């Protein structure tokens, strides 16, 4: 998208739309895409315990990605319509305001001492079991969600928009959605979701590291870089570990550790440094994401001027 002089104004407009309205409450295209992915998985994942299921997952991924991407690519070539559609698509791919709303929805009952309400609300944004989490556990789950979803729903989306325009942003968001649905190491998805998970890893490799660096600059830089160097490789994901370690270090709080998923305990490596997380750290994390976004906007402005110069000069 750097080849188009309109990419920065389109990006700023889409960010403003996300800040102003947030995600659509009804008829969000990603909800429909997720429903379609679920139906397709039921039909193609017939041999879940066999490596043959990898092929089924690959076919499902192609069937889900190619038709919408080809249609979007054709529509984007239409004058005026293409630009308007590009703004709308990027807006639909972003999740900045939703991230802020979900984070504060957990923080507010915690601050009021309403732990049960906070548990119910954090259950809406994480996949772990939340019914028995204490205050620190709720804070930890919320902070991890903010850091990871900030990387996926904001920074990786903007990265791919700058690289490949609205088509790149949509491709990333669809792949990321499939990874969120199928990228588990359970019996059902171990093979079927493997291609989606690997493609998501590839697409997020550079954005995750740029996001981690942005978190570090927006927070405690030295601690963030130390945690990145010493802790990131302990995570199962090559990208989530980078984001989690740098983000937790920048906040100077402890994340990771034991967590229960679907009734089973998983001992995850610790990330970050300093004290156990507290409710106030949630607002600090949201501010860190916001400051990192401002850094990206400043960097985008620099790139735009470098490519296209200052109008009238």
TrEMBL record:
<dbReference type="GO" id="GO:0048472">
    <property type="term" value="F:threonine-phosphate decarboxylase activity"/>
</dbReference>
<dbReference type="Pfam" id="PF03186">
    <property type="entry name" value="CobD_Cbib"/>
</dbReference>
<comment type="pathway">
    <text>Cofactor biosynthesis; adenosylcobalamin biosynthesis.</text>
</comment>
<comment type="function">
    <text>Converts cobyric acid to cobinamide by the addition of aminopropanol on the F carboxylic group.</text>
</comment>
<dbReference type="InterPro" id="IPR004485">
    <property type="entry name" value="Cobalamin_biosynth_CobD/CbiB"/>
</dbReference>
<keyword id="KW-0169">Cobalamin biosynthesis</keyword>
<feature type="transmembrane region" description="Helical">
    <location>
        <begin position="72"/>
        <end position="94"/>
    </location>
</feature>
<keyword id="KW-1003">Cell membrane</keyword>
<keyword id="KW-1133">Transmembrane helix</keyword>
<keyword id="KW-0812">Transmembrane</keyword>
<comment type="similarity">
    <text>Belongs to the CobD/CbiB family.</text>
</comment>
<feature type="transmembrane region" description="Helical">
    <location>
        <begin position="292"/>
        <end position="310"/>
    </location>
</feature>
<dbReference type="GO" id="GO:0015420">
    <property type="term" value="F:ABC-type vitamin B12 transporter activity"/>
</dbReference>
<keyword id="KW-0472">Membrane</keyword>
<dbReference type="GO" id="GO:0009236">
    <property type="term" value="P:cobalamin biosynthetic process"/>
</dbReference>
<dbReference type="GO" id="GO:0005886">
    <property type="term" value="C:plasma membrane"/>
</dbReference>
<protein>
    <recommendedName>
        <fullName>Cobalamin biosynthesis protein CobD</fullName>
    </recommendedName>
</protein>
<feature type="transmembrane region" description="Helical">
    <location>
        <begin position="43"/>
        <end position="66"/>
    </location>
</feature>
């Amino acid at each position: 998208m750097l080849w188009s002089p309109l990419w920065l104004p389109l990006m700023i407009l889409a960010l403003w739309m996300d800040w102003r309205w947030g995600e659509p409450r009804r008829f969000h295209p990603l909800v429909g895409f997720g429903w379609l992915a679920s139906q397709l998985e039921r039909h193609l994942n017939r041999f879940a315990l066999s490596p043959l299921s990898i092929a089924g997952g690959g076919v499902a991924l192609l069937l889900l990605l190619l038709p919408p991407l080809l249609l979007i690519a054709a529509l984007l070539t239409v004058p005026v319509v293409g630009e308007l559609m590009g703004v709308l698509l990027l807006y639909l791919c972003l999740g900045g305001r939703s991230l802020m709303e979900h984070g504060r929805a957990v923080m507010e009952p915690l601050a009021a001492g309403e732990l049960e309400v906070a548990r119910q609300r954090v259950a809406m944004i994480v996949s772990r079991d939340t019914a028995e989490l204490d205050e620190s556990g709720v804070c930890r789950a919320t902070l991890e969600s903010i850091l990871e979803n900030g990387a996926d729903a904001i920074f990786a989306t903007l990265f791919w928009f700058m690289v490949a325009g609205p088509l790149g942003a949509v491709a990333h968001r669809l792949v990321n959605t499939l990874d969120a649905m199928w990228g588990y190491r359970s019996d059902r998805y171990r093979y079927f979701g493997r291609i989606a998970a690997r493609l998501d890893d590839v697409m997020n490799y550079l954005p995750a590291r740029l996001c981690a660096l942005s978190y570090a600059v927006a927070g405690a830089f030295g601690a963030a870089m130390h945690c990145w160097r010493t802790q990131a490789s302990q995570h199962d994901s090559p990208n989530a570990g980078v984001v989690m370690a740098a983000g937790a270090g920048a906040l100077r709080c402890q994340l990771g550790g034991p967590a229960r998923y679907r009734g089973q305990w998983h001992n995850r490596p610790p990330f970050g440094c300093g004290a156990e997380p507290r409710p106030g750290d949630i607002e600090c994390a949201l501010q860190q994401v916001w400051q990192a976004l401002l850094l990206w906007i400043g960097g985008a402005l620099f790139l735009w001027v470098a490519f296209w110069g200052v109008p009238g000069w």
